[in-house]
TrEMBL record:
Any GO CC annotation of this UniProt entry: DNA-directed RNA polymerase complex
Protein name: RNA polymerase sigma-54 factor
Organism encoding this protein: Luminiphilus syltensis NOR5-1B
GO biological process, alphabetically ordered: DNA-templated transcription initiation
Residue ranges of every copy of the RNA polymerase sigma factor 54 DNA-binding domain listed in the record: 323-481
Keyword entries, A-Z: DNA-binding, DNA-directed RNA polymerase, Nucleotidyltransferase, Sigma factor, Transcription, Transcription regulation, Transferase
Annotated ranges, domain RNA polymerase sigma factor 54 core-binding: 116-309
Amino acid sequence: MKQSLQLKLGQSLTLTPQLQQAIKLLQLSTLDLQQAIEETLESNPLLEREEEAALEQAADDDGNAPGENAVDFSEPESNTAPDSSDDLPVDTRWEDLIPSSAPTSSGPSGDDYNFDDRDSNPDSLQTQLQWQLNLTRFSDTDHAIALALIDSVDSDGRLTQTPDEIRIALDDPDIELDEVVAVLHRLQHFEPTGVFAQDLRECLLIQLRQMPLDTPYRETAGALVSRYLDQLASGSDIRSLARRLRCDEDTVSGAVALIRSLDPTPGASLNSEDTEYIVPDVFVRKVNGHWRVELNPDIAPKLCINNQYTKLMEKGHSDGDRSFVKDNLQEARWFMKSLQSRNETLLKVGSKIVEHQRQFLEVGEEAMRPLVLSEIASQIGMHESTVSRATTRKYMHTPRGVFELKYFFSSHVANVGGGETSSTAIKALIRKLVQGEDQRKPLSDSKLCTLLEQQGVTVARRTVAKYREQLNIAPSNERKRLI
């Protein structure tokens, strides 16, 4: 083939830097957006907060004359400390006269003391166990065994290795299995009660043994856990368990209630992660009978252009200075315009969601309507991908709680009368039916299908099973309770 050069005209869609920046800001969450704004404020000198600009303007209007809040740097009348002990009062301390070089905000009374820094790193389960170990008298060998046992405890407080495996891991021929078991029994008295158990049965027995001897139904509960824990999990009848233990049904019922009050994962309470607070992007409230959608004004600071730098373009400075100011000015304007575009898109999407899901705000989850992204996109004149970015990791504060915008979009199921019901509404109906069922005879998936059909919702049994699993609801045979 012969190579040649040809000119060809055509049209293609390209993403300008401004459009790329707008898309990037739109898909950021609230925390990521605040971080991006801070980084832009640090890199672009022409961009500043409005409150900072107002303070600078007020300072310019007042001039350089010192006011009430101005600092006076003139020499004081007397700046000498007493150099004779005769001039000191009787109860005066040396620290009161000579300033200390130590920071003054080391205690709670300091202005810069941050309580979040003090509580930001909670102690883990291993830290708590090692602290209790340091308060317990052990020999050097037993202390090494105890450290190995603590290292083998998982986040729930359960042992991940057997005592024999721990003995082998210590690689000390002088340590015997009985010694490891003896140290283990002492560690099982540590807090929280129930740690260092090898399985659920031992965890429950440890908690029962450490209860006072006069605890009601303590002995019967220990017998149930030791012999019939599997039968308790499968939902055996109270009458059959009472017959096996040769006691009355009331005693067995009290023992079952005592077992349910125990903690199967005692270490989980100490391994809780830091609480992450959600900052809503949109507020929805009812005013005079109408639902109003508003943006959260605190998610992003109000920005403006620094006038002092823009004046440099008008003055006779070098070409490099004017070029620097011009580039940063254009970048600042693009950034502010992208933020404005993001806010407008969020407001449009949030308003349309409230318009479609007004019944959810009035009634609850059972009134949730089916909604897809393309339906909102066609109504606001945007692409479906734009709506997807605007609803990902964005939250709406409603009188019924804080929800992600994605929560209001769900698939639909056809009804008997030809209508449609959202999957969220069906899940709410299933949860309501399960909560009102007879615990002696839980509702099966087939029975749930029948009850939903009576309410006008036709779904298959496997669909009910899928929704039930998504709601973390156990099957009917596992939901049976001992009454």
